Amino acid sequence: MGILNHIALISAAFVILQTRWSSSWPMDPTLGFLRLPLNKSNFHIQKPYDLKESERYSFKHGVHKMWVYFADKPLYRNSPTHPRTEIRITGYDYSSGVWQFEGYGYVPCGTANVTIMQVFGGSPHATTFMLRVDQNGTLTYYRSAVLASNMYDRWFRLNVIHDANASHLKVYIDGVLKFEAPGRGGTSHYFKCGVYSQPDGSYYMESRWKGIKVLKKCG
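-> structure tokens emitted (219 positions)
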């Protein structure tokens, strides 16, 4: 067998392996995206309406810490929603284009049945994406697809890419593509992270975030 045939076989094998590993091999999801400037003015803290911000949020050494109790009040008086403490990223609401959220998240053991990141805006639903944590430290897409297990007490990198034009969503954890899904409609979207209790949320809920970025696809 000649050297050209050897090269062809090696190239074919590489393509097969690349295809098999593409869904589990870490990568940088931010390639081809432009990082947009963020500062304190872009972080609006949503919290129980009757409490001071400092009672449910802190920012120290580059880490945003947000916590809430299941018995806390909602965001607004007489709101039917459950309690939350979240960063609502302002200044980058969008209705078209390809956008990305990146952040390093941390959830302490015991926090359960809570949403820790959202792509807000949908129709007829209120959201396009919810990342939830169940009682076992498992990250899920809403209440269905399992994205990652045993996530308590460790930092993880989250990248969520939303193509508003194509109505398509990709979710990466630690650089690995974990999930793809169609969008859920809506004409305006934005990113949120923190803790938003679900109906069966734990007594105490907390998440921490650092390295938060908003990016937009170039071109």
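The longest strand covers residues 204-217.
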